[in-house]
Amino acid sequence: MSSNAARKEKEGTLAPMREAVSQLERELILRSLDAANGSQSEAARRLGVSERVLRYKMKKYRIVRSTKVSFTDKSV
Fold first, then answer.
1. What is the CB neighbour count within 10 angstroms for residue 58?
2. pLDDT (mean) for 46-50
3. Straight-line distance from the first to the last Cα atom of the chain, in angstroms, rounded to the nearest whole number
4. What's residue 70's pLDDT?
5. Residues whose CB is less than 8 angstroms from the CB of residue 60 and which lie 6 or more positions away in sequence, other chains included
6. In this predicted structure, what is the pLDDT of residue 56?
7. Helix, strand and coil percent figures for the chain, each rounded to 5
8. CB 35 within 8 A of CB 46
9. How large is the greatest C-alpha to C-alpha distance in the chain, in angstroms?
10. At what angle do helices 51-60 and 3-35 cross, to 10 degrees?
11. What distance in Å separates the CA atoms of residue 33 and residue 50, rounded to the nearest whole number?
12. Are 68 and 38 in contact (CB under 8 A)?
């Protein structure tokens, strides 16, 4: 078997694993952002990565920055 054929065979078996890792990573980012009420710096801290890495991953997985705003106006 040539090295190109071996590499293609190996890549074919790794594709499902890469997809599973990507899905897991995306889910962890979404959960961390939710737990941090949309705060990217807090989500990055929870995940143990830099904010830059988190922003890169959010762009990679097309995760739109959440603008969760929670406030209570007691004068109403």
1. 19
2. 98
3. 75
4. 52
5. none
6. 98
7. 65, 0, 35
8. yes
9. 76
10. 110
11. 14
12. yes
pLDDT of residue 49: 98
Quote the crossing angle between the two packed helices 40-47 and 3-35, to the nearest 10°. Answer: 120
Count of residues for the chain? 76
**10, two tokens:** 């190996």
In the block, tokens 């004068």 appear at 75
Q: What is the pLDDT of residue 65?
A: 76
C-beta separation of 70 from 34 below 8 A: no
Structure tokens at 41: 């710096």
- Residue that has been written with the tokens 């988190």 in this structure: 54
Going by the DSSP 8-state scheme, the letter that residue 72 receives in this structure is: -
The b-or-e profile of 19-40 (16+ CB within 10 A means b, else e) is eeeeeeebeebeebbeebeeeb
The pLDDT of residue 76 is 47
